[in-house]
């Protein structure tokens, strides 16, 4: 669901007030205070109702090439969850994007605000190793898309491979769970998207949007330090329902001491006459420097439409995380054949999880 500011202005103001209350309450109490009614980053429980409120906010500064730097209050997101201890659970995420934009000349245009439903689903626990999810979900491809919220990722910019070839969201049914394989674990999810029928308010945007899709994701926990994932999706995109796309992805997460390494590679082919095959991927390392300051390095590659040359970028950044729910980021991205999908630039952001 997407709408302009003119309709939900009162609701948006109320949401901003709530976000401000949660942030103020969290900052006024130490994160470790067990007797605090609210702790930053853990949401606010509404008594014994099973309802909890949470969310996050994020602001970005970026300067791309020779363009003037711009500031954007990019996201205000509200989480509502319900868990009474029964087999049925609920979760929703409503997000307001582009609340305030200031560039070379100050711009404050209410029409640029986009309020939409990011996620809305019910979970039903069928068995210990199987649950049914119904609603709008994050598409289970790779790692980044399933984490996705700014306070939980290490860079302001998002790798091209995590958003360019497939839709961020799916609307339909998903079966998921975890099974044991000897002394190891395997997470699985199998989903079917019916966005063409169940999400009539979807619009064609810069990011792909599903018309319909089916897929699966497996994640094997080889040990406490290494997880390996495999994703597959068969889908058609909005506006091109007659063209089938087939995407396969491989990802891994590895930790050694304080160093973490994450990588994703995706390959897509299609039934289009041009049959443009696409390879995209990234590898990213994060290591603490001193205290709560971290160094981040990332390499990305991606095929470009109607071009024979490979696009490549490198990202070098720093992140300061004074508390788990708070993060400040600064990074520089540069590359070759990258102007269209990941232009050179300097990025900074501040994000907080409520």
Q: SSE layout and pairings?
A:
Elements: E1 2-3, H1 9-28, E2 44-45, E3 51-64, E4 70-83, E5 88-102, E6 106-107, E7 114-127, E8 130-138, H2 144-147, E9 169-181, E10 184-193, H3 195-198, E11 210-221, E12 226-237, E13 240-256, E14 259-270, E15 278-290, E16 293-303, E17 310-320, E18 326-336, E19 345-353
Antiparallel strand pairs: 1-7, 2-3, 3-4, 3-19, 4-5, 5-6, 5-7, 7-8, 8-9, 9-10, 10-11, 11-12, 12-13, 13-14, 14-15, 15-16, 16-17, 17-18, 18-19
Overall pLDDT level: 86
Q: Briefly note the CATH topology name.
A: Porin
Number of helices: 3
Structural class: mainly beta
Can you tell me the CATH class? Mainly Beta
What proportion of the residues is helical, as a percent range?
A: under 10%
Top keywords for this entry?
57% strand; Porin; 354 residues; 19 strands
Account of the 3D structure:
With 354 residues, the chain is mainly β. It has a single domain, classed as Porin. Helix content is 8%, strand content 57%. It has three helices and 19 strands. It has a 16-stranded antiparallel β-barrel with strand order 3-4-5-7-8-9-10-11-12-13-14-15-16-17-18-19. The longest helix has 20 residues. The N terminus is likely disordered.
Q: What would you say about this model in short?
A:
The chain has 354 residues and is mainly beta.
